[in-house]
Each structure stands twice: as C-alpha cells, then as structure tokens.
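Q: I have 255 residues here and want to know how they pack in 3D. Can you give me a structure?
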Amino acid sequence: MKTQDPKKKALLESLKGGLIVSCQTQKDEPIYTPDMVVKMAECAKWAGAVGLRINSPEQIRQVKEANLGLPIIGLYKVWHDDTCVFITPTMKEVDAIVEAGADIIALDCTNETTHEGTQAWDLIKEVRKKYPDHLIFADCATIEEAKRASDNGAEIVAPTLYGYTPATENIEGANYRMVAQMCRELGDEACVIMEGHLYTPEDAMKCIFLGCHAVVVGSAITRPHYVAKRFVDCLSKYQDDWRKVEKAHHTNELK
C-alpha cells in the first residue's frame, strides 16, 4: 500500500537507509533485568539507529517514557502450542501496543492458522480500519504473503517470519534472492524492510544494496546469549542447534 499521508511519508523517510534495532528481552532469559530494554534502546540511539522494534506493552511503555525520540515498531509476542503465529496475533494485542505508544504496528501477516482458528493475515484489514493513522509493519515469510499484506493495507513488508513457518522452518540464513525479488515486485507499493538472519554490518549493507528501505537487526546486537550460543555450536561441531533455542516459546509473563 503506497501511502500519500504526509505524516506517514515523513516517518518512512526517517527510516530510509538506516538501522532499526530490535530491543527485546524475555523474563526467562539470562539478560533480563527490569530496565534492560531501555538500556538496549539507549545504546541503539547512541550508535545512530533510526528506529526501534520493541515487544510487549510494558517494554514499549518503558522505552516511550525514556524519551529517546526514535520511532517504535511495536509488537506483542504471545505463544500457543497449537500454532506458529505469535507476533501480535489478535486485535487485543494490537490495542495494547497502540495504547502503550507504538508508532508502527507489527503483526503476523502469514497465511498460518492462529490459536483462534483464523488466518493470521486476515487481521490486517481490521487493523487498517481501526488504526488508519498508524503504519502497519507486515511480518511475512514469503513474497506471496508480502504482496497480500501490501494489497490489504500494509505500508511496510518484511520477511521477518522466513524460517518460522512450517514451509520455511529448516532454513539457516537470509534468502537474499527472495529479498531482492520482494524489492523489485513491491518496491513501488510498499517499503521493504529486511528483518531476520542478519549478523554483520556487511549483511545489512547487502540488503540496502538490493533495494531494501531499511534493515532491522536484533539478536546479533542485543542478545549476547544467542551470539555466544552460535560460537559454541560451531566449536562443538554443531552437536546442538542454537535456532531451536531461539525459536522456543517463552512464558507469557509480560501479558
């Protein structure tokens, strides 16, 4: 969806070519402290990041109150054992992150079935109608899902969930060919922001070269336990798989 709204266009322009840092921590992780997400966000701003991606109303509110002046892509992770849909799965979660101060709404826009028995991408029309003044950040796994998200109102599309759906779960890294195709086919209709499986500045720069509007980087910057686990897995001849840990369900204590 190509927006003509001046405020939305200005916000999108502020992100162009820049780094968005995903600042997240769960209460069952070793890095968790009550103020950790704010410290992550402060570090991101110090480094020159153009935006933040924050999970849960509680942590969005904390970062908002820190007055860092960076736009917040808000999401709300809620896990259920009967579905792989966990990013802002229902309107209840959307309402919560908007109330907390999210500037951009991120939600699962795959074709996967939710805990409630709907298809994840069906929520986007409802969100677009209820929150017309907010940008929507569509977390997708395939080009087809990104196209549908754009057609239904998302101004931003990203392959965030590539690797987290049944059809893509065995991947090891970023699919740069798919990202390039997404930029070619959707670049005139939506901003393609690369998120997922980026581990170095060179990885990020490659995505900008391919046509991405901006990049989101999370675990390679803000989650040292995952960085360490990747090293350990390699040195132990891959007897373990750090991605199994990364994809594990967390407790919903922040709900």
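Q: Anything worth noting?
A: The chain has a mean pLDDT of 94. The chain has one domain: 6-246.
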